[in-house]
Write a structure and sequence with these properties.
CATH architecture: 2-Layer Sandwich
Largest sheet: 4 strands, antiparallel
Strand order of the largest sheet: 2-3-1-4
Number of strands: 4
CATH topology: Alpha-Beta Plaits
Helix content: 25-40%
Shape: globular
């Protein structure tokens, strides 16, 4: 389930794959599963950042915020598209990722990448 959701999401922006250097801004949006509160999810989101994302090569920064009705926004800055790709390749094996993905509606997940 995790890899198929990530693959479907990641395929949204293949245009950056062939581009060279430059910082990448990754913007991810999703909704929490029904019954999961922002207060319940916030520490899980922080754990993904602390235990996986922030430890990846090329990581610059990450921030997240929640909106109404279980909507979430995550913005991650990477040194390059190659670094962002490498993080995605290891995400599904990260222990914190399983708990993160279990609390979100994977079908609502959308990712876009922007080159600086």
């Amino acid at each position: 389930m995790l890899s198929s959701a990530l693959s479907a999401t990641f395929a949204v922006q293949p245009a950056l794959a062939g581009q060279g250097g430059g910082e990448v801004v990754e913007v991810v949006t999703f909704k929490l599963r029904t019954g999961v509160s922002a207060a319940e999810f916030a520490p899980i989101d922080k754990a993904v950042e602390r235990e996986h994302v922030a430890k990846q090569s090329g990581f610059v920064s990450r921030e997240s915020a929640h909106g109404a009705d279980g909507d979430w926004l995550v913005i991650v800055h990477w040194r390059s598209a190659k670094d962002a790709d490498a993080s995605m390749a290891t995400f599904e094996k990260a222990p914190a990722a399983a708990q993160f993905m279990a609390k979100i509606e994977a079908s609502t997940m959308s990712m876009k990448r922007y080159q600086k």
